[in-house]
Amino acid sequence: MFNKILIANRGEIACRIISTAIKLNIKTVAVYSAADENARHVSMADEAVFLGPAAARESYLLIEKVISAAIEAGAEAIHPGYGFLSENADFCRACEANNIIFIGPSLHAIESMGSKSSAKTIMQSANIPLVPGYHGDDQSPAVLKQAANDMGYPVLLKATAGGGGKGMRQVWSETEFDQALAAAKREAINGFGDDTMLVEKYLASPRHIEVQVFCDNHGNAVYLADRDCSIQRRHQKVIEEAPAPGLSDQLRKDMGQAAVLSALAIDYRGAGTVEFLLDSDNAFYFMEMNTRLQVEHPVTEMVTGQDLVEWQLLIASGENLPLNQSEVKVTGHAFEARIYAEDPDNDFLPVSGTLNVLEAPKESENIRVDTGVRQGDQVSVYYDPMIAKLISWNQNRELALQDLSKGLAQYTIGGMTNNLYFLYNIANTPAFKSADVDTRFIEKYHRAIFHDSEEQANHSIAIAALYYLLTQDKNTKQNNTAKNDPFSPWQKTQAWRMNAAAIQHFSLQLKQQLYFVQAEYLIENSSYRLAIGDQQFLVTGKLEKKQLAGTINQSYFSATIKDQDDSISIYTEQKAFEFTLYQKSFSDIDDDHHDNHLLAPMNGTIVSLAVAEGSKVEAGESLLMMEAMKMEHTIRAPVSGVVNNFYFQAGDLVDGGAELIDFTPDTESSTES
Ligand code: ADP
Q: Do 542 and 443 share a structural domain?
């Protein structure tokens, strides 16, 4: 076994590899860019070598620098992780030339599988079933189009050098072909510097099933079960699971054996993944082989009880495969969800910034978290914006899915838009629960997964509103205990709130929709009457840690709630919603600094002023009307008092949070109760 290895990667996968190295007493050398000086992978390694500026092509992709770092540190081998240089033939060659072991397959295997066309040609000779299509050398547009016409539409154009779903175009008819080809070629040139294309029959709603294979240098080969990676957005994986649900033992075995044959066809060594499409008739077709460790390898580890990085290290150091096929056992079921800093509501646009709050669920036999970041770290614009992988395992699929769902509801990420709600909604879609999955799942269940459905939203707005009201109460009480001051502003607030006519106003925004909430506290049954749009809800509940349970119009609910700054996320048993809160109702003001301030609850326009400056007003009286997102919102007097001054006039634009009115509460009336 090696004494020291270099990890030519960053983020969660670098950390993942270092963990196994630590377990095996192997010293580790990290590499890092200017953006990663304080990154987790650097702190976990024994040594770290600086490569260059943040941009990957000036740091993590610099073959020479990585090789000299390994030589200088005395590392005998390099683990490339996934992405970056992991499938780069030049890098593999440079390792060989410098007597450094590349922890991965041979140069020949990388080269053969690096092009989807040459991979298909090799697999065809090995009698592995292929997706019907054209993968020839003649790249003239007329030939490609004729191939498409012959196989019938729809077809899929794929860049042979492609990856990560890029350089792909669906073509639905001959008339679209030329344009689609041109677009796919442009994307391929930009992404991979190579616009060679293949044409495949586009399968209607296949499943993506892949098989993990391992080969050693002594002619042994095994497959370590299969994974279903059908849940995809833009041809990229989102949630994966092992084993693939619902396959017959025979089909599983056939696919496993086909995967091993594929690996043997190219004299494979180390960890590899053979990807297949499975159609509704249970026919499977080779799609491609990835000659590296996959992002989703943990689900295989969870069900086989094996450490795949350890296997890679053993094989690279010349040892035999740890198990033969009959010794590979699959126990239980595992899921992995990829948690990203991205906006599912905005076409999955990547997001960058600081992870102000990052609280992962507690790790256990059932929950594993693979991550490369800690609270306070940056998600930078330079790299893949993955925050973590949440992995669950349990005795069966149903239980493992419950663990995944619970883990997603518990995961707290503050300061950054992320896809937690989206993952949670996929996990809780009835079709996913019953394993009715295919690669068009997200498209099919769009309404259930995204923030679309208003009727479902109403229920959770009531929960969000109740949460806000209850936490206000709690904060107020805590403040009171701390200050223990009978004349503190809290007293005023409470006095007002205890009034029969204690009415508060605030707004909750869901996606582009703003909901105005009027809440009235009913002291006789400790509940709130909520008016949200034209709907009325009678709500009551109890909050314990992040769990809120109670009733809405007398029907029971329970939800996990997370709040950060002005966002409140509600995870009900069916669906998750994320609201933005615009409070600025007087009752949440617990500090006398703000007593005479009334703030704009959102960006908008002043429509009209309702009273004259200097007016004495009663609690609840309208002072000013605002318009935001085509809806009008009234700013009311929180308590009785005097309007000294308006800072804006009708027609003015104001920013959310701007002070609108200089208001002096009438102290006498607000302290009586
Ligand atoms: P990449 O290397 O860019 O990830 P793949 O060839 O692995 O591309 O395909 C990615 C995904 O695209 C697959 O998982 C599948 O969902 C979809 N896909 C690929 N080929 C086909 C096809 N012929 N028919 C239908 N869907 C396909």
A: no
The model carries a pTM of: 0.83
In degrees rounded to 5, what are phi and psi of residue 415?
Answer: 95, 0
The total number of structural domains in the chain stands at: 5
> Tokens representing 58?
């000036």
Q: Please report where in the chains the tokens 């699971």 appear, as a residue.
A: 241
Give the 3-state secondary structure of 481-511. Answer: HHHCCCCCHHHHHHHHHCCCCCEEEEEEEEC
Q: Which residues contact 573 (CB under 8 A, 6 or more apart)?
A: 428, 558, 559
The residues annotated with a catalytic role in the active site are 292
Q: Measured in angstroms, how far is the CA atom of residue 153 from the centroid of ligand 1?
A: 16
- Using the atom order of ligand 1, give the atom closest to the CA of residue 229: 14
At a CB cut-off of 8 Å and minimum separation 6, what does 276 contact? 208, 209, 210, 211, 255, 258, 259, 284, 285, 286, 287
Question: What's 154's domain CATH number?
Answer: 3.30.1490.20
Residue 110: inside a domain: no
For the segment 391-400, what is each residue's pLDDT rounded down to a tens digit?
Answer: 999 999 999 9
* CA neighbours closer than 13 Å in the CB half-sphere of residue 593: 1
pLDDT digit string, tens, across residues 119-139: 999 999 999 999 999 999 999
The radius of gyration of the chain from alpha carbons, rounded to an integer in Å, stands at 30
- Tell me, in angstroms, the distance from the centre of ligand 1 to residue 93's CA: 29
My answer on whether 269 and 326 are in the same domain is yes
The range of the structural domain enclosing residue 538 comes to: 454-581
Q: Is 645 helix (H, G, I), strand (E, B) or coil?
A: strand
Is 368 a domain residue?
Answer: yes
CA atoms within 13 A on the CB side of 409: 25
Q: What CATH number does the domain containing 503 carry? A: 3.30.700.30
Residue whose Cα lies nearest atom 21 of ligand 1: it is: 202
